[in-house]
Amino acid sequence: MGSALVLTLTLSLGAVPAAHADSLEDQQKALQDQAARVQDSLEFVDAKIAKAAGDLVVYQGQLPGAQQALLAAQGRVATATSEVQAMAARVDMAQQNKAKITEQMNTDKQKLASTKKLIGQIASQAYKSGGVPSDLSLFFGADGTGSLTDTMDLADQALRAQNSAMDKLSQQNATNVNSQARLVAVEAEIKDLKAKADAALAREQAARDDAASKKAAVDKLVSDTTALNNQLQAAKPGIQKKLASVQSAQNEVAAQIKERDRKLREAWEAEQRRKAAEAAAAAAAAQAAAEAAAAKAGQAAPPAPPTPPAYTPSQGSPSAFGLRHPFSGDIPITSGFGWRATPPGTIDFYGTGGYMHTGIDFGAACGTPVYAAAAGEVTVGGWTNYGGGNTVMISHGVVQGNSLTTVYYHNSSVVVSPGMRVSQGQLIAYSGTTGNSTGCHAHFETWLNGSPADPMTLL
Fold first, then answer.
1. Residue 46, C-beta contacts closer than 8 angstroms, at least 6 positions apart
2. pLDDT per residue over 334-370, tens digit each?
């Protein structure tokens, strides 16, 4: 009666392979399902150990994915660091370009100032002399003793010098405007590069923070897995002892159900034989009376009617019990009936490769009303000592040669008592998480002719 007939525990770090599924949600569900199977195997033994064993399966299944996520995060850190370094190099190159342009502009400014000074001097002398300066030696080193022709040549040279200076000034102005435009462009580039560098630094920091978070998650998984593994290793002798005790108690209850149902079927069969014998005796008496009456009247004896058949043991369909669902509304099944193979990487303490889940678990919230699946007599109504907590057991007698018992485990409270007759659909308990249970749910069993049967084939 219980799903504790076989215990499976992971006893080596990383022994349980990661669940394979298409999406992260599917992987998580597969891990949770696997953990639930492990917990089912310990449902009636020890709630804390059952949860630890289930958590261990989940942690071990999550560890490879967490390690892969950490590697990916570390890769993103490396990429972000390279990006930061590249941006820093580009900023440095742009700064060097700015320095060169600034230096060239300063040189050009000096040349521009010199040219303006020269033009100013030429203009000033021209103004003072009323035209071309008389003292051309100021610019050309003349001693002022030459002829008029020489003076005119000097004047021409002065004009050419002025025009050349003006051309040079114009070129320098153009160069200065171009340099200024280049400087503005470089400064804009530097500003943009610095913004990108700041963004790259932020991405690098975010990547480092993410990697640190993922490393902490991996470290915690390793730590938790190691701790749980050590806990289960230390608890193993006690679990084995508890398993033996629980199994012994459950076997005793199973034997009681089997024996009670056997007696019920025997009594039912005896009653069927008695009724068949009574029918045969009544038919024989009627035939004898008819024959005596015919003889007294001098008539021929009437033909004998067919002899009623003797009772032959047979069984009809178990569906004749007409079971109803023990809950109102749509309560999901969280664990079905049947044999469960030992998950890969776990240790089967009984060496049978799995365990038998002898009922079905409904994901009923604590306090959900529980109703009798059929009319019958309550044989257990209250606390039990083999892991089921507050339990209700109902014997539904024999129908068409089949005997049936239903069992309802882990209830928060029970509202019936042994010896009570209940009708189908009558409130018998409220679901809960008593006994060795890891959470609110209802474990429901159907025992047909003394053996556990899948309730879904009878509901």
1. 235, 239, 242, 436
2. 888 988 776 655 555 555 666 778 899 999 999 999 9
Residues whose CB falls within 8 Å of the CB of residue 353, separated by 6 or more in sequence, listed in order = 341, 342
DSSP track, 331-392:
PPEEE-SEEEEPPTT-EETTSSSEEEE-SEEE-PPTT-EEE-SSSEEEEEEEE-SSS--EEE
CA distances from 31 to 3, 81, 232 (A): 20, 36, 19
Helix axes 47-129, 148-296, angle to 10 degrees: 160
Average of per-residue pLDDT across 66-84: 80
| Tens digits of residue pLDDT in 32-72 | 766 666 666 666 666 777 777 777 777 777 777 778 877 88
**3-state class (DSSP) for residue 395:** strand
Q: Which of 34-38, 301-305, 426-430 has the highest mean pLDDT?
A: 426-430
Judged on CB neighbours under 10 Å (0-12, 13-18, 19+), 429 is buried
Rg (CA), the chain: 51
User: In this structure, how many other beta carbons lie within 10 angstroms of the beta carbon of residue 231?
Assistant: 15
Measured between alpha carbons, how far is residue 204 from residues 68, 86, 178 in Å? 19, 13, 38
Dihedral (Cα; 397, 399, 403, 409), 10-degree rounding: -60
Which architecture does CATH list for 246-288+318-457?
Distorted Sandwich (2.70)
**More reliable by pLDDT, 49 or 321:** 321
Q: Return the domain boundaries, the chain.
A: 246-288+318-457
Q: Is the pLDDT of residue 325 over 90?
A: yes
As a whole number of angstroms, the distance between CA 117 and CA 140 comes to: 16
d(CA 347, CA 343): 9
> Rounded to the nearest 10 degrees, what angle do helices 24-41 and 47-129 cross at?
160
Distance from C-alpha of 152 to C-alpha of 228, rounded to nearest angstrom: 111
